[in-house]
Amino acid sequence: MKKIFVIAMLCAAAVMAQEKPEDSPLVKAAKASGGPKKKPPKKVITNADVKKSKGNLVVLPPKPGETATVTAPEPQKTSLQKQDEQRKASGSASIRVMTAEKKVGELEKELRRIEDTYYAENDPNYRDKTITERFNQTKKQLDDARKELADARDAQTKAKEKPSS
Questions:
Q1: Which of 93, 97, 77 has its CA nearest to residue 160?
Q2: Distance between CA atoms of residues 59 and 78, nearest Å
Q3: Which of 165, 158, 159, 148 is nearest to 91 (CA)?
Q4: Residue 35: left (phi > 0), alpha (psi -120 to 50), or beta?
Q5: Distance in angstroms (rounded) separating the CA atoms of residues 164 and 89
Q6: Angle (nearest 5°) at CA 134 between 129 and 135
Q7: Per residue in 100-151, pLDDT tens?
Q8: Is the whole-model pTM more than 0.70?
């Protein structure tokens, strides 16, 4: 009896395995669309195609309300030209820094000389009016020169950091 029961179970399992389950709506839609589409082959342009072409350039008229602007493309610089420009910019920045450093040094010396003159002078009126005015003027020039030096150093670091692509 047990053998018949086992054989019946195996037959029932075989029948169940042969039945196909129903497809989901997504699977049905994919099958209805025909499966994955093949892309059309792209045309490869060869030298023969270029020789056969007539070389006509078609320029479409501008759309209404737009102005027609034709700009010539800028010529691209070669890497050698870019490197030369970078070298020139770096050189001019270095000269600017050296000039600014020299100017700051001279103004610092002048400021020290004026300060020494201030303390060496015995006449209080001359000291307070003339020497103080010269000191303030030189101090202002020194501050401007230091600002110019800082700007020159910033420009020099930017010129050195510039990529040479």
A1: 93
A2: 30
A3: 159
A4: left
A5: 12
A6: 100
A7: 999 999 999 999 999 999 999 889 899 989 999 999 999 999 999 999 999 9
A8: no
* Long-range pairs for 135-142: beta carbons < 8 A, 24 or more residues apart: 135/111, 138/107, 138/110, 138/111, 138/114, 139/111, 141/107, 142/104, 142/107, 142/108, 142/111
Taking alpha carbons only, the member of 104, 77, 91 closest to residue 155 is 91
From residue 149, give the alpha-carbon distance in Å to each of 43, 92, 128, 136. Answer: 61, 14, 31, 20
Chain position carrying tokens 């699977």: 27
**Placement of tokens 């020194």 in the chain:** 142
Pair of tokens at residue 39: 């892309």
Please report where in the chains the tokens 């020139």 appear, as a residue.
88
- Per residue in 4-56, pLDDT tens? 888 888 777 776 666 666 778 887 887 777 766 777 778 888 888 877 877 77
- List the alpha helices (DSSP H) in 19-78: 25-32, 47-52
Q: Do the beta carbons of residue 82 and residue 165 sit within 8 Å?
A: yes
